[in-house]
Each structure stands twice: as structure tokens, then as C-alpha cells.
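Notebook, bench 3.
Goal today: get a predicted structure for SSS family solute:Na+ symporter from Lentzea atacamensis so we can plan the truncation constructs. The sequence was checked against the plasmid map this morning, with no discrepancies at the termini. Length recorded as 473 residues. Pasting the sequence as submitted so the record is complete.
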Amino acid sequence: MALDYAVIAAYVLGMIGMGWWGMRRATTKSEYLVAGRRLGFGMYSGTMSAVVLGGASTIGGVGLGYKFGISGAWMVFAIGLGILLLSALFARRIVRLKVYTVSQMLDLRYGGNSSMVSGAVMWAYTLMLTVTSTIAYSTIFNVLFGLPKTVGVIIGGSIVVLYSVLGGMWSITLTDIVQFIVKTIGILFLLLPISLFAAGGIDGIQARLDDPAMFDVGNIGISTIITFLLIYVFGLLIGQDIWQRVFTAKSPKVATWGGITSGLYCLVYAVAGALIGTAGKALYPDIANKDEAFATMVEGLLPTGVRGLVLAAALAAMMSTSSGALIACATVAANDIWKRKTDVHSNRMFTLVLGVIAIGVAVALNDVVAALTVAYNILVGGLLVAIIGGLVWKRGTRIGAMASMAVGALTAIAFMVIDGVLADSPIYYSLGASLVTYVAVSLATPPTPAEVLAAWDRRVAGKADEEEELVNA
């Protein structure tokens, strides 16, 4: 295992080194939070792909393939669809707004101040996303060194917090590019072909499994597919961690086409993970926990050195999502909740404190799927309608938006209590209640003031003057 250790160590040291280098570039708030809004096509598409394809997409995607066959691709496929829709429909307008948070967009569109409500929901979502990604580190460190969960979480979490605090979005962008390359090589060019070859190709897998359902795209269940589409497609349309990457694009064109490229990459990644998991079922049919399929295959199929690179790829997937969620959480806390003028130093302190909190919660928490589901249900049920409505419907009002946020979030919470956290009903009923409330209350209240809409139109068209852009900076 010495060569595997060397590969992992080189990767980790490289991440810390890039954090240090990024610190030299992050000299202003804009540089620290959104990389100066000047990423080109290559860096933008790479970093977007890295942030959305985390540990759940890699280890979880292989696990779903192990259990459900090719149908296990639906979760990551939904993530890819979300990025495609966001990039094709809304990315140009989002870039032109020149804000730092989703809540600031709501304030610009509707007038007044709604950021405490929307910011609190977004903060909880980004914190839980950081926590769940941080917990996943323990899987890799357990395979490599036999370390217990707590030690693995602390080591992995500390590395991410260190380079995130040092250079902010510049460090995260640089590390994401490396992470994107590493996991593309490790997952698509090494583990996928090796696992398919070991299982005898598609024909060999079919012969070993003798189960046609494993190649049925609907095997995972229609209700599950619909839930994946609702939660992940809609969640990616409005998540602060995703919007913050859109803010880094140097132009609307980069945000659109770089994002579409990233979305297509996610679709390929989805099918690859499901095929790897299906091959794993054929090779190792008795794995008790589907989420152990990835580690089992890496340990059993790959030679030393290559094994280290593929484990580094999984670690890269986790770190990219975790760091992106952490900087998003700190940005929301500083701009929407703290609401005082901040500089680079104070934003670093927010990132450090929240990173330590995330590590502490990750050590204490076990049911990460339930925790993340709660966050997604409240995020989508509470904020989706107000955000998308503001982008596409001029008649939507601030009171309608606020009412829809409250009704949607409370409905999601109520049905999670009634039917259970993992039930489908919370997302269905909360979206329905939020939409009806938004339309009804907006139509029953005075339209948004003309001067607010005029300022909004200037921002969306990219014609706002410097003073207007600084209002939400």
C-alpha cells in the first residue's frame, strides 16, 4: 500500500499548496467569495462539475448501481439535468445581477428585505451539505488506514477548511480543477473500464446476474425517479452553492455554455457510476451495504498505485462538494444573516468558524441521508417558487414571495412529521402549497413598485451603474 499512500499524500499536499497560492490572489471580498467574477470556459465548467459531483454522486451513485443496476443512474442524472436547465434558462440573468447570494437576488427583485428568512433556510441547507460531505471522508480513510469515523472526519474536514479559509473561492476553484481531472481519470478512465473488463463486459454481467431488471431503466421505481427529479433538479436551480459558482463566470456566455458542458459531463458520470455498480454486483454479489460497493471494488480490482489514484478521485469528489458548500454557507452567514460590511479577513473568520462547526456536527451525526433530505425539502419547498417566480413572472410581489416561503417551508416540515423524513409527500405538498400561495397572494396585493422592477430590469440586462451594483455588494 506504500504507493497508494504516496499518491494520496501527494494529492492532499497539492490541495493545501493551492490553498496557499490562492491566498495571494484573494485580496478583495469579490476575489475571496466569487473569484473576482472572471473564470473562463475551461475553469468554470470544470469547477461546476466538481462541486455538483460529490461523495453522494460517486460512492452513492455506484451503490445505487449495485442495488438497482443501470436505473441507479437516476440520482446523478437528475443532478445533470438540473445543471443543464439552470445554465440554459437562467445563468445569463444570474451572472448579470452581480450579487453574492440568492437572498440578495430576492431583495433586488421584490424590494424590501427578505434575506433573514431566505438566508436562514439557505444557511441550514449549505451547512448540512457541508456536514454530509465531511462525513463521507471517513469511508476513504477507513479503507486506506483503518481509521475510525471520527478521526477520518477530522482529518478530511481540516484539510478542506484549511485551503478554503486561506484562499476562498480562488483556492476552491484551483483545487476543483485538479479534483475534476483526478476523478475523471480515476472513475471514467480507470475504474469503469477495469470493472467492466473484470466482469466480462455487458454480456458477462448479464450472464452472471441473470436478472433482466438490472438493465431496466425504471427498476428503481417511478416514484423514486420523480422524487429525484423534483429534489435534485429543483434544488440545483436555486442552491447557493451552485449560484455562487455561476457568479464566478466572467461573462453570461461562459456561464451558459460552460454550465451546459458541465451538465452533459454529469450525465456521462451518472451512467458510468451505475455501470460500475452493476459490474460490482456481478463480481461481489454478497456485499451487505450497497455503499461499500465502491471501496470493495477498488480494493479487489485495482493494482497498487492505481488504487491510490481512484481513492484520491473519491476523496476529490467529496472535497469539492464540501468546500463549495462551506464557502456558500459562510457567504450566506456574512451577507444575509450578519448583514454588516465585511472584508476578506472577516469572511475568512466566517469560513473558519463554520468549518469547525461542520466538522463537529459531522462527528456527532449518523443519519446523514435524513439530515440532507430535511435540508433539501425545506430549501425546495420553501424557496423554489419565490426564486423562479421572481425570474419569470413580473406580477409576483414581495408579500406573495414571503408568504410562499413560509407556507412552503411549514408544509414541508409538517409532512415530514406526519409521513416521515424520507417520504415523497413533503416535497409534493410543499411545492403545491407554495405555488398556490405565491400566485394567490401576489394577485391579491399591489404589484411590485415600478422603480423596483426598473432597477431589476437594468441589473438583469447588465446595464446597472456602479452605484446600483454596490447596493448588494
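The mean pLDDT is 87. The chain has two domains: 1-365, 369-462.
Flagging this for group meeting.
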